[in-house]
Amino acid sequence: MAEQVSLGAANLGRRQVVDVARHDASVVLDAVALSNIVTAREHVDALAETPEATYGVSTGFGALAVRHIPEERRADLQRSLIRSHAAGAGAELEREVVRALMVLRLRTLATGHTGIRRETAAALAAMLNAGITPVVHEYGSLGCSGDLAPLAAVALALMGEGEAETADGERLPAATALRLAGIEPVTLAEKEGLALTNGTDGMLGMLVLAAADLRDLLAVADLTAAMSVEALLGTDRVFAADLQALRPYPGQALSARRMLAALSGSAIVASHRGPDCTRVQDAYSLRCAPQVHGAARDTLAHAERVADIELSSAIDNPVVLEGGRIESNGNFHGAPLGYVLDFLAIAVADVASIAERRTDRMLDTARSNGLPAFLAADPGVDSGHMIAQYTQAGIVSELKRLAVPASVDSIPSSAMQEDHVSMGWAAARKLRRGVDGLRTVLAVELLCAARALDLRAPLEPAPVTGAARDLLRTVVAGPGPDRHLAPEIAAAEALIDSGAVLAVMEET
To answer: What whole-number percentage of the chain has pLDDT above 70?
Structure first.
């Protein structure tokens, strides 16, 4: 179980978001957060008692902000806001995404810039700690004015309406789930509807989760690329540090260093290192792997910097400032996140594309340097891994479509009041699908490269690549007649997803 995450005095880190979202870490609002919340709420309460109209406190929302709402109707105003904005559709979001956006909204509430009441923030924390996950649907956010429909679905459950899943995965009316957890449903007061919905939390949560996955997958890609270089009788000389230093991108240097280490001590590489070797240069998919993987690493580093800035931000509209000023602003616009989410989708597609090209070389007798056709035991009778490459190709084609930017699109909404939106939510959703696709593509390369290394016997692979092959052999048998291949792809993917493949590389 992950450690408890404290919100308030310190900024929330990416690792902590992952701990809450995926590993059910509990959260606590520290003394600083509670003080911030109480102070800001006092300002909102004071404004609520004045005759002056204040957006989100005593007015309608969006294009309806011109209407002043009398005090006796303001509870209705907040309730109506959440009910009307919980207008999502499509597939239900993954539990980890919902938990991520919940903890990120709570993080902003803890800054004291939203005007939320202490008891409302405490109820949201209690929902997280009880493992109650509101049912949230995929469509409904334009990445501007906040991730409105998804966050409104969470707020709806906080009010005791809609549906939610318990920690045990049982789907119940939200009111029942709250009652079983001993949590009182919240009746929202002035400003609280906006405070709960006007944030980039869904986009940011998906960016943080994708970044964590991609950091590991890029390390796995270095390993599977090294295995393919070895299996195809490629050279490791191109990964030397002095060559990489001529173009000093940090990601490229790291990928080359990892690939060189993975190939260290390989009898297969040593077998064709002498003057008798007639191959002067390897194909780009082998020789340029550090350049492609490294560019993806540097892209990821930029995206993580954006995520870190967003994690230190207070996203709401209007916001409560020092001295009690409440001001409208545009900080809810998701452009910074949308851009890097789209950028990462491009990197994901290209890393998968170069992996598929390496795989295809291992299956083609014209380019595999002596490997049997499609790595089959008896080519003609057996088809080997022919169709595994088809699966890779289909996924890579899909990833290229997913790499088309969402953030360049905009559809005006709210009677042209919200006339330019980021579509960052859509960028995040397609990036999640892209990450899943890359994992499968690398699983196929792992399968093929491991089989090719076996077929190079009696020559032995390097300790690192050999350890990766041996790990795979604990769940997938070695070369032989054709077998049902789908379970083997799934087993390889599960090894990557579990972190076991990466752990073998690090340990060896």
So the answer is: 96
In order of 113, 201, 325, 416, 486, the CA distances from 328 in angstroms are 12, 19, 10, 17, 54
Query: Are 347 and 299 a contacting pair, CB within 8 Å?
Result: yes
Give 399-445 as a DSSP string: HHHHTS-STT----BTTTTB-----HHHHHHHHHHHHHHHHHHHHHH
Three-state SS string over 359-371 comes to HHHHHCCCCCCCC
Give residue 341's identity as a one-letter amino acid code: L
* The CATH number of domain 206-459, selected from 1.10.260.40, 1.20.200.10, 2.130.10.10, 1.20.1000.10: 1.20.200.10
**pLDDT per position as a tens digit, 231-270:** 999 999 999 999 999 999 999 999 999 999 999 999 999 9
Alpha-carbon span 238 to 252, nearest angstrom:
12
Active site residues: 55
* Residue spans per domain, the chain: 5-199, 206-459
Query: Stretch 309-333: mean pLDDT, rounded?
Result: 91
Q: Is the predicted pLDDT of residue 109 greater than 70, yes or no?
A: yes
Fold of 5-199: Fumarase C; Chain B, domain 1 (1.10.275)
What is the pLDDT, as a whole number, of residue 30? 95
Does residue 471 surpass a pLDDT of 60? yes
DSSP 324: G
- CB 296, CB 218: distance < 8 Å: yes
Strand pairing report for 163-165 and 171-173: antiparallel
pLDDT at 103 (0 to 100):
98
137 forms bridges with which residues in the sheet? 92
pLDDT digits (tens, 9 = 90+) for 135-153: 999 999 999 888 999 999 9
Distance CA 221, CA 467 (A): 15
* Whole-number percent of the chain with pLDDT over 90: 82
Beta-ladder partners of 386:
none
Spatial distance between the Cα atoms of 361 and 371, rounded to a whole number of angstroms: 10
Q: Give the number of other CB atoms < 10 A from CB of residue 355.
A: 29
Q: Is 48 left (phi over 0), alpha (psi -120 to 50) or beta?
A: alpha
Topology match between the domains 5-199 and 206-459: no
- Name which of 315, 455, 449, 317 is nearest 388 in CA terms: 449
pLDDT value at 1 more than 60: no
What is the side-by-side strand order in the sheet with 133-134?
133-134, 163-165, 171-173
